[in-house]
Structures are given as C-alpha cells and as structure tokens.
Sequence to fold (570 residues):
Amino acid sequence: MSVPMAEPHRTLAPPERRVAEVRGARRLGAYDLITARDPVGPPDPRPGQFYMLAAGDGWGGGTGERPFLPRAFSHAAARPHPGGGAELDFLLEDVGPGTHRLGEMGAGEALMLLGPLGAGFRPPVQGTRPLLVGGGVGVAPLLCLHRELGADDQVLLGFRSGAHAAAAELFGDGARVVTEDGSAGSMGLVTEPLAAELDGDPAATVFSCGPPAMLEAVRALCAQRGVECQLALESGMACGFGACFGCVVETVAGYERVCVDGPVFAGSQLARVV
Amino acid sequence: MELCGVELGGPVLNASGTFDAIAARRAFGDALLERFPFDAFVSKTVTLGPRQGNPPPRLWETPAGMINSIGLPNKGMEGFLVNDLPELARLGVPLVVSVMGFDHDELAALVEGVGAREEVAMLELNVSCPNVESGVLVGADPAETAAAVGAVRGRTTKPLVVKLSPSSVDPAAVAVAAQEAGADALSLINTLKGMALHPQTRRPWLGGETGGASGPAVRAVALEQVTAVAERTTIPIVGMGGIASGRDAADFLAAGADVVAVGTESFRDPGAGRRIAAELAALGATGRVRTPEAVR
Fold:
C-alpha cells in the first residue's frame, strides 16, 4: 500500500493485541488509577490517543455475561520504560461490567492491550495560550497534555463532587477545580470559568475532554467567540482501529469514525457533539 | 492451497465488513503488511451508490458477542474502484470484493464493474437484502437467490462466492439453488438478526432498530448450518460464525468448510487471524478440499 501522509499526532501501534502487566493500582477518590507495563508498545503515545483494554482473566465467561469487547481509554500518562516499551497510567470509573473488572485489577494481573490508537491533540494555534478543560474521568488525556505543555497552559477541571475531584491532585497545584455540588473548589460548571477566561482574553486554543454535554457546551462557547477548540470524544467501540464502523459521530462531512478519524476532532468539524 | 482456482497461502480469511485494511494501515503502519492477518482479504460490501450507513448507536455488546447495525456505509462502486481498490491491491493477498445490489440491474452493474478489474480475484454476493418489490429477503429464499445469481453469472468469468443468510428456513436449500444457478463457492454464516432495548427507555437501542448478532454466541448455529450445506452441495465453502481459536476453525473444517473466515474476533484483536492460523496449524488441521465423491 502507498505510504500514508505522516501523521505526527498518531503514534503507530503494533498490529496485534498484547499482554501488559498491571504494576500498581490505587483508589483516587471515586476513580481507580492503574499502572501497566506495556512490554513492546511505543514509548511515546500522543496525548489524546487511546488504548483498547481488557482483563486477561475474568473477561466474559464465568458468572458474568459481559464484558466481551475491550474498552477504550486514553492514557493519563506514559513513561518510556528502560527495559523497552512503556509504563502507562489509566484513570477508570466504574460505570459498567468492563470498567468494573478493569478497576478491580491488581498488581501482577494480565491486562490485554492494543494501541495507541487514533489521532491525538494537535499543537495550539500559534500565538494563543493553551486552555485545558476537563470533566470527570475525561481529565485523563489532559494530564499528559498538561505535562507536555509545561507551565504555559491553564487547566480548568469540572467534577460532580469532591470525591471525583480527587483526580485533580494529579495536576498538582496548577488546576482550577469546579464541582457541581460545591464540595471541592468552587460550585458550578467548568464552562463558567471557561467563558470568563475567553471573555477576558480570547487568544486561546481550547483542549477538552469530558462528558458529551460538557463538550457540546465547550464547543458552542468557543464557536461563539471564534476560538479554536480540540475535543476528545468518547464512544462505545468494538475494535478501536476502524474495522467495525460502530463509533461514528456526525461531522460536517458526514459520519466519521471516532477511533480512526478522531478521537480528537476540531470543534469546527462538528455541528454539535450530542 | 487454492480456492476456486485462486492460490491462497493458508485457510484463514476475514469476514466481509469486519476489517478495514486501509484504516488499519493508518493505525499500524507497515507492520500491518508485514504481519497481515489473513490469507485473502474480503472487502466491506460495496453498493452501486455511496451510503452513509445507519444513525448511531450502531453497537450493542451481548453475552459472548455483539449486535451491529452499521447499514453498509461505503463510497459506492466508483469511489471504491478509484480510491480503495488500488490501495487494497498492495496488501499482497488475493482480493475478494463483496457486492450488494438492491435489484438485479444494480447487482449486474456491480459484478461487471468490479469483476472487470484485474486486482479482483473473486466476488462475493451479499444477498442479505430484501427484494424491493416482494419484500422477501433474497438470501432467505432459494428461488430469489437463484434468480440473483443467474442474473449476474454471465457478467464475469471470475469466481462468484454467494454469502448465505442464516435467516432461512432451510439454508441448505438456498445453497443448492445458488450452486445450480452458477455459484462457484458459498460463504456462511452472515449475522443473525437481533435487537437490544435501551436499559431505561425499553426502546430499540440501535439507530437501525435491529441489527446482526455475531461472535461466539452464534458459533453453534453456524457450525450446524455449515454441516447442513456441506452435505448437499459440492462447491467450496467458506465457513464462519464466532470463530475465535484454531480449535473453532478446525471444527468448521471438519464440518465441511474448505477455508474459514474470522470476523468479530478481529475486533478484539486485529492479529486474531494470524493467531488462529497458527493454532490451526499446530492442531495439524488444514483446509480440506471436498471432491464430489466425498459428498454424501
């Protein structure tokens, strides 16, 4: 096949599923943070790319009817491993049988893994400041983006409650936290400080990941102000590499696959997120 | 080994619509070509005009499987021939192009247009569509299937594989009708019709309301249908339906399939085809070629 155009925001994955080892797991408020040693994958997945994960044991069969398919997660952090491959952190929220099983995994367990997949975040528009806007478990890909950008960015994080806001500690002191119930940070929605920031200085590029309603609000806010935004979408997926055509989102060019055409889309590509 | 005169490096194909080699190349780069998982590549179904496919949601996970309601999105024949076929021709394995027409004229145009391209080794007729006049699912009915195959048989000299629908009272009767109308091989099973309800609203979950069930959940049904079809036909069989291991593949070969295809398992692992081929080889099982004398 002809060589596709170089895609700097897409680190290529080995073409088969492999076994990673869970090296550690800890509870982080309402979430689980698991660390896995990927033995042969690339050391440099791009922020916003994702991996398909499944437990080596207890995935289908047994007493539970599901899960059967792997689940897609953006890495929260990736560190090259001196022995090759990478060490990857994933932030998980128990919302169903797949995330439940992954969240209960402990050190030494086999984690089936494919990735990194999809296209990650692109650089900010020249002359603008990066503004990172995360919601809930969607803060994960913004963590590695934040670390890559260094001190140049601003981080706004929204959570349901203080228990969920525990994930903000991964960002150190630099993040502004908003919760819906006011139990941590200020009370409200993360789009409120975002609007204030953009009204104060619209020379920004917004990077966002979170629940669909939040992403839609971010998209609309940015569109009204002519601010470029990059939205990392989530979708149920069977494969993660363009095979099943199950994860489409409606774009201005018709349906596109979240897994290969995204998961990061420019706000201008989407008529609306939900 | 060979299938309908086409040389194959081994007995594992992909099921149509379960692997997009062009998208996979974007994700995996050259390593995909170096470790290509299949011995022949079967395209997603191509229709005469372009299709957007069904509105999302398009997927539902079931016990040991899934339901999809994708709706055959594709670029249409011209888009496929111009944009995709030259890329697929570089995979290094024989190409099987799946086509579906919504009437005999469309199907004939597809078979003629696709069959004329030298990159194409074989065509697969996806007959899991309704006759627009009678409403009868073509692949569920022997006479409809025979009429569809007969309408296009003269349009190409390339082997025609007929993809059988499992939604027939007697799949073997449809298979016999396809063979008598000029099919060179049969592939089965396609997905089983299924549906899922939204856990809160109890309305259909899938954008297309119903979809096709696949995965290990349908393997037993597939194995029985392959057995029944093999007993009454003499042309080669591509067996599929929930194959996830070399042992599963060996069962299908023993049931009468000449080669096997992997579908849903490739969603879980894009390298599944290679793994299954290696497991099959380790079992000492290979594709078997039936001779007419071997058929009861």
Notes: Chain B has a mean pLDDT of 94. Chain B touches chain A through 48 residues (CB under 8 Å). The CA atoms of residues 99 and 157 of chain B lie 16 Å apart. The longest helix of chain B spans residues 219-232.
